Structure formats: C-alpha cells, structure tokens
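Re: the 834-residue chain
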Amino acid sequence: MDNMKKPWFWLSVLILCFSLHTNLSLGADRITANQSLSGNQTIVSAGGVFKLGFFNTGNSSNFYIGMWYNQVSEQTIVWVANRDTPVSDTNSAKLTISGGNLVLFNESQMPIWTTNLSSTSSSSVEAVLLDTGNLVLRQGTGSDYFWQSFDNPTNTWLPGGKIKLDNKTKQPQYLTSWKNSENPAPGLFSLELDPKGTTSYLILWNKSEQYWTSGTWNGQIFSLVPEMRANYLYNFTFESNENESYFTYSMYNTSIISRFVMDISGQIKQLTWLEPSKQWTLFWSQPRRQCEVYGFCGSFGSCTENSMPFCNCLTGFEPKSQKDWNLNDFSGGCQRKTQLQCESSSPSNGKSDRFMAIPNMQLPKHSQSVGVGNAGECETTCLNNCSCAAYAYDSNGCSIWNGDLLNLQQLSQDDSSGETLYLKLAASEFSESKNKKGMVIGIAAGAAGAIGVLVAIFVFLMLRRRKRIIGTGRSVEGTLMAFGYRDLQNATKNFSEKLGGGGFGSVFKGTLPDSSVIGVKKLESISQGEKQFRTEVTTIGTVQHVNLVRLRGFCAEADRKLLVYDYMPNSSLDSHLFHERNSNALDWKLRYQIALGTARGLTYLHEKCRDCIVHCDIKPENILLDADFCPKVADFGLAKLIGRDFSRVLTTMRGTRGYLAPEWISGVAITAKADVYSYGMMLFEFVSGRRNSEPSEDGQTKFFPTWAANVVTQGGDVLSLLDPRLNGNADIEELIRIIKVASWCVQDDESHRPTMGQVVQILEGVLDVNLPPVPRSLQLFVENQENIVFFTDSSSTQISQARSNVSTTSSQAQSQSQARSNISSSSSKSLSEN
C-alpha cells in the first residue's frame, strides 16, 4: 500500500499499460499497432459497408479471418486471409500488427498468416478497412499502401479491384474458387489474365487445363463476351503499361451492391443483391453451360446438362466422398465399387474384366492412339493393359485412356456428336453375372423350402398383374418416362377429370401407381412421326427451371400423343385473376412475385437454353401455380411440336385473344419479342384483375392498356387502375414499375421492346426505366374503335383480313401528328439510356 503512494509505482503501471495490446472499440474501422482482434470482435468500414472478423461456415469448427457485407442480411464472404490454415479457438487466436505486418496468430500463438512485408515501420503502421472492401496496410493517414487485399483476392472481385498480369515477371494474379460451400480453401477453378499477353481472361482447371476464354479486349468489350454491349450497370476499363495489364470495373450507381465471383461451379458469375427479395440475383455467368466446365464431376464422374444433380458416377462407381458431393464439391470424383481382376492380388472367381458400352458420350481428352486393325483388337489392347480404364473405336481408329477418366459428358440422344465409350469394369458388375448368382441363391432357397418359393411366385404374379393393369412407364432420357396409352388411360380414369384446355389440346388429372398426381395433356394437330416427336419431346424434357412446369414423360402410340406433367394444385393464373371476385383475390405482393417468376421462366427459355425457345402463347391460362403459388410457365416448346399447323392452332385458341403481337398479323417472322408482347398484355391484367378485352366495371368502353399507359405517362392516379378487390393495397412504386414495363413490352416495333432478361432486372429494381410512349396500336384502338391486334372471331379469315388491313392501318398512323410519329423512334433510345 505504501508503494502505491510513490510516483515511480504509477509510472511503472502507465508504462505497462502502453506496452500491452488493447481491445478494439466497437465500430472501429482499423487495427493500430497497439491493438488486436479476437473472439467476436470486428472492424467496420467508415461508411458501414464492409465488416471484418472471424467467421465459420456450416457446422464446421474451423474459423477464418474474413470480410463480408455489413448491410446484406445474408452473410456473404468476399475475402479470406487464412484460406488454408483455419483456427479452432477464436478467443485465443488474434489478428494484430507485428513487426510492421498484419499477422494472424492461432490458438498456440503461432503465426499462420501474414502480409509478409520486409521493410515497414512497425510503430505507425495500421490496417484500415475501406468502404470499397479493400483492406489496406498503411502508415498513418498516408495514401500509399504497403499492402492491400485488392492485390490478394480470393474468390471475389469487387468493383474497383483488378485481376492483373505483371508484365515484367509474366506472373498472373488469380481469382480462385472455394473448395466447396463450407470450405474457403482454394478450389480447382481459377481466373487469370493470359500470361502470353493476349489481353484475354482465361478460366483454368487446376491451373493447367483452359476451358474458357473471354477473347481479346477490343477497346470496348472482350470479343467473346457480347453481353458487355448491353451493359447499363457497369463502367469497364482495361489498362496496360510496361508494369502491368488489368481490367477493372465500377458501378454507375454506387448504391447497387454487386460482386464478381469465381464460383465453386467453375463458372464466373456477376451477382447483384436485391434488398426487397433478400437474395443475390445472377446477372451474368460464363461458361453458360455447367458441363462446359472442365473436370467438374471429377474422375469417373459424368456430367449431364439440364439435369439435377449435374454429376453422376459411371456404372460400377460411387462417390469418393458423399459428404463433399452433398456440398456440391464433385472434384474428388468417383471410385470403383469392385476392384478389377488385374488389380486384385487374389482374384476370387478368376473371371476376366469386361467392357460396358456407354453411348452418346463426349469423350475425354488426352487419349492414347493405338495402331490396330479393328474394334476387337482395340478392346484386347485395353483389356491386356491394367492401367487402361476405357477405349473407343471409330473412324479415327482406336483410342485408349489410362488412369482416371476426366471431363466425361453424357450428351442428349439428338446430339450427333456423341460417341460410344467402352468402360472397363469387373465381371461382377454386369447384370448377367448377377442374374446367375441370383439363380444359384434361388435354387438353394428352393431346396430349403418349396413353400417359400411358391409364395414368392404367387407374389410375383400378383405384382406382374398389377403392373399390367396400371403401368409405370419406362425411363428413356434421364428422368423422362415413356408411358403406354393404356397406362395413362387408367391413371386418368379414362380421361374423366378435365382440368382445362386450349389450342394444343385438353389436360386431365391423373394419379400414378406411386400416388403422385399428374396432369396429362392430349395433344391435337400433331402430324409428326413418332421418331421426330420423341426427339422434340426429349429436348423439351431437358429444359428445367423453377418457373417452368416439369415434363415427366410422354406417350407416342400411332396418332395418339400425350404429355405428362407435374400437377399444379393451385390451377392456372386466370382462375385467380378473373374468376370469383371475392376477398380471396391474389394480393398485390403475390401478383408481383408471380409476374417476376414468370419473367424469369421466360428469360430461361429465351436466353439460357441451348436454342432459344419461343413460347408463342403466353397468357394467364398457361401460367400454372404450385402449392406455394410459385408460377410455372406451361406449354413451352409445343409450338415446335405442332410445326406448320401452329398458325391454324393460333386461330382456334379462344384464350389467345388479346395477347397476339402485331407481327403475328403482319406475317413477318416471329421472334422471342412476340412472347415479350404477350407478357406485357398479361401484366396489364395483373393490375386490373380483368381481361383487357372486357369493358370496365363502370360500363365505359375504355381499353385498359391504353388507359393505364396514359395515366402513368401523364402522372395520373395510378391507384385508380388497381383491381378494386385490393382496396388500394399495393406498393405504388411497384405498380408504376409494372405498368411502365407492360407499356414497353407492347411497343409496336419489336426492336423497342425489352428482352425478358431486362424485364426481370426492371422488376427486381436493378434497372430503372424511362416513361414509355403509348404504343400507336393502343392509341388507334381508342381513336378508331378498331382493334388491329385484338380480334374476337377465331376464324382464319379474320387473321387474313387483319393482315390485309395492316397497310391501311399504317397509313392512318402516318397521318397522326409529328410528335406522335416520333414516339416509337425515340423509345428504344430512352430505354437503353437507362
């Protein structure tokens, strides 16, 4: 106690305090020389955009120092320091300034990560987290950085960052995927700027096998990324000097949160955060098809496009790590279930290994060519070489593959580029061997108890009789089933419960033997042969998206052709929009989500499939709703099935009235923009809750799309347009946005209409859009009481008459005022400017 009164005691305490590290204050944006970060402590950038601290993923006990968005509700990691060396105890581990470096010490106080600088002054160095997502090491408030995370990216490329090439050392900078969704360790896929100096970005597998390139920079875009021309969110820059070359991007609207990721899928993706839906939305990705990613499914794994999951092990193989596969990490590939005879030190049965033929395969790279005379000699060559895993024999001769098979792809039946791969398997993997083994067991069981055999035969006969009565279908392509006509006749109780119908045919409710409920469409006007029909249906069956109705199977017997779909318990959209005007009407939030989901489904058909699929019949009857009211576009691809008879089908479809684009009548070629027009007309009905072609409830003859377009463009009361059943309960901004989108979609000139991809971005709030002009056809409908697009008679004569009237209508349009004639010419520009 006496010492406490002496000055030297307090001086010693003060010196001791300054010699110890202090805890970070909550909300600090930096770590200074006398501070450390441990436990659940974090630093936050000055504007509150990014946060840095310890994190872990999933159920893992591994912790990492990382950076994530502070204002995004879904934790999204954009940078990781110790990717390869996690810590297990964050309370004992610490991130601190040591020797002029930022250093991470683990629970044993061993340094496991450092900025690794050789010459800095430790006393005044600080690590600062900037609002750009750049963690920098600097001295005081100086603008020169000793080190920055932007020069050491992990899997995310943020606006303002760069992936560069050192032009002196030719050493590229890498953007590298995580190993899986729970492990930030470097994965197999990486992006780099070509070290050869071609100004192209490359994606590589294992930093050795290139499977995608951006093409060279032409001063505005990368030559093989034409999507950059349609950009309206990003400002692109490519720089090259004697020291380095790099590409960088920034946001025109800095309030939009966007990131570029080298994904675990092996694809590069540009994602944008949508606050209203609380989710990341894909803006762009390359390569577009998953199976174009080299080695995605690992050794002895086969990739199948438009199927989930994409990866499956070849026959006779199983995943090396099911846990990794569950985390979408297929890189470990597959392993044999049964060892080959040539690999076994003590073969049990002495039977030779055999080959299984796998047709329609894209053969793996790096084959070895063998000079033999025929397929038999090719097979013998592979069989006698224990390291040979497979062979192929075609017009180019004999090819064999030694060791692991990598980058296998199962192609669709209509892909003529597919070849047959002969896979080496143990003899026991063949059904013939297994059947013989089963016979031995059966004989032994019969000797042990004849009564048991009789019971088994009785049960077998009963099951066979039940199968003959009900039928289950036969798998023909992935999950697609081929049903017999009698099977579907029994499932639908002789087509007794009709769900709906249209120009393509009627739909009936049915139940399969596994109790799953289905919708069966009996197609009409199909003149195709069975082989062509099966080919087209198989193509439709591979198209899968959350907003598309799943095709489960088909029937093709003589002139009877049927399609089998998932059953949608909430029926079609028209039954909720137009029928039973009561308190159970769809609320605005649900209508908006249905509009957005439908747009996403159409975007997939137009832009994401191998070939653009134009629906040709978008209307509420073809938007089905599942148990959760998730919209599903139905009847896509059927226009191609109908073929030349489709124009006749259009003239007989009562539901098509009011949704046909002007080009259907004028006779010009139909593109995806015809779907955009139909979608726009349908959006007007989302707002009003009634058919566009119906008179308004007040008895007036106002054509709703014209009325709505005028109200929005003239700044009127938009709530007056809303379905009266909603009692004015709608988000006004969303309401205006939908009417604007609808008005753009129904522009007379299809080049002035947005793509469905742009529609999605507008509805998501990513893209702003100018006020649209009122389409001429809508104006003329009101002024002349003559509808050049919407007709009520379903006869082909009316279409012919309408086509013959197009020139007359064009002359009338030319006689309008000069201001009106300039509207369409300016509409495309005003949309693109936004």
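The chain has 21 helices and 43 strands.
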